[in-house]
């Protein structure tokens, strides 16, 4: 008697994960089922999913199959992703261990038995093309930013909600709601930077202009916001105009390395340093130092690997589909780079749990507006965002990922307050 599709898939996924006992139940494209009866259900709808595992036996192959709709989760996506990430030989921080030659042979043998062995399928079109030119050159960085951010302002509005803030919120409690938590974050940034009437603020990676509008409208600051995303800049300028702040806020499509008009009283870099790259950190720090007046403050808000360093894998799902050429570093590396560049550290605040709440709120928005989100971009793109945001939420909850606000100052005549109670 021929083996059922589900039994073969169980063996194949076990090979990828390095475990004989899967924590999920599988339904094959023939309707067969295998695995623990009470475990999260994963439906494998097409032999193409198994072919992708044969050719890319790890996170990337599974991710491609999910984006293409060849694999789906029935029920709670968090339960399924958590079960997979805890299985077998998954390495520290959720990375898949490299497949051995024996693994590849076993996968090919299983695929042949299930009549699913064939040439490698083309990746879903949502995958980023391999970057051309020197990594982190201005042109390649602009292309990487465009891949992630120029996917439609309407799509981001559905996911982010009215605040249009695409970084970790600050939650007084889980009950306050996403918009209130994002407003609290914007206000906290302004207070940490010591903004006041006519303070000159440079917002590096300004997104859709939310911090610029808040700083100018609430604190009277004069703001220059820069982004490499043309779509972000267009909407940010409209939001500035709608708020009646065109005399105080300028939005530019500009690389931070080309800003010509310092010095600024304060600089914010919120969720931008992840795009800089480890090797480029000294230049990033030096450039921001040069744009800041003596005594001025810089707030660097960035995601980090927790519990030590980890190498960014350019062939991981998140590197191929979400943040091409992005790179995370540990907090020690970031603080060390800032101090090596001459900055004095004033405050470090870890917001790990806050980002888990933020990501879950974004996933809830996406799920609630699924049909509209698909119409605004593509089903594949919506699936990319659901996978990356839900998996990232789990990463922040289990402590493998963190996010930190590091407040520093360029030494100068203006002393910081004696206690951090000025801004908390």
UniProtKB/TrEMBL annotation:
Keywords of the record: Lipid metabolism, Methyltransferase, S-adenosyl-L-methionine, Transferase
Tree of life domain: Bacteria
InterPro entries, per the entry: CFA/CMAS, CMAS, SAM-dependent_MTases_sf
Record GO biological process: lipid biosynthetic process; methylation
Region (Disordered): 115-139
Record GO terms (molecular function): methyltransferase activity
SUPFAM superfamilies linked to this entry: S-adenosyl-L-methionine-dependent methyltransferases
Family as reported in the entry's similarity comment: Belongs to the CFA/CMAS family.
Record protein name field: Methyltransferase domain-containing protein
Organism encoding this protein: Goekera deserti
């Amino acid at each position: 008697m021929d083996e059922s599709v589900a039994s073969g898939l169980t063996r194949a996924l076990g090979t990828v994960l390095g475990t004989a006992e899967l924590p999920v139940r599988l339904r094959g494209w023939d309707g067969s089922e295998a695995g623990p009866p009470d475990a999260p259900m994963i439906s494998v709808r097409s032999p193409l999913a198994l072919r992708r595992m044969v050719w890319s036996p790890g996170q990337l192959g599974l991710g491609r199959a999910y984006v293409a709709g060849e694999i789906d989760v029935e029920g709670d996506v968090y339960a399924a992703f958590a079960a997979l990430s805890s299985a077998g030989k998954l390495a520290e921080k959720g990375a898949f261990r490299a497949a051995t030659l024996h693994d590849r042979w076993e996968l090919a043998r299983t695929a042949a038995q299930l009549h699913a062995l064939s040439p490698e399928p083309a990746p879903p079109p949502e995958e980023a093309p391999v970057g051309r030119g020197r990594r982190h050159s201005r042109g390649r960085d602009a292309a990487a930013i465009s891949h992630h951010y120029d996917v439609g302002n309407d799509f981001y509005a559905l996911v982010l909600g009215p605040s249009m803030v695409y970084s970790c919120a600050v939650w007084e409690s889980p009950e306050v709601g996403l918009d209130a938590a994002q407003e609290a974050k914007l206000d906290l940034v302004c207070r940490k930077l010591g903004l006041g009437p006519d303070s000159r603020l440079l917002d590096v990676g300004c997104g859709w202009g939310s911090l610029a509008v808040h700083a100018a409208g609430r604190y009277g600051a004069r703001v220059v916001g820069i982004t490499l995303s043309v779509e972000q800049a267009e909407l940010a300028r409209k939001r500035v105009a709608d708020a009646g702040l065109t005399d105080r806020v300028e939005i530019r499509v500009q690389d931070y390395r080309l800003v010509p008009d310092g010095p600024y009283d304060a600089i914010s870099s919120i969720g931008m340093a992840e795009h800089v790259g480890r090797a480029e950190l000294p230049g990033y720090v030096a450039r921001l130092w040069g744009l800041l007046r003596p005594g001025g403050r810089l707030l660097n808000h960035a995601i980090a690997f927790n519990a030590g360093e980890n190498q960014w894998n350019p062939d991981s799902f998140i590197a191929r589909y979400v943040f091409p050429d992005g790179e995370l570093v540990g907090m020690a590396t970031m603080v060390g780079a800032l101090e090596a560049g001459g900055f004095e550290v004033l405050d470090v605040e870890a917001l790990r749990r806050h980002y888990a709440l933020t990501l879950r709120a974004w996933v809830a928005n996406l799920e609630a507006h699924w049909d509209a989100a698909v119409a605004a971009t593509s089903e594949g793109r919506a699936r990319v965002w659901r996978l990356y945001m839900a998996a990232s939420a789990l990463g922040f909850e289990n402590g493998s990922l963190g996010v930190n606000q590091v407040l520093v100052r360029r030494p100068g005549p203006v002393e910081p307050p004696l206690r951090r109670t000025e801004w908390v």
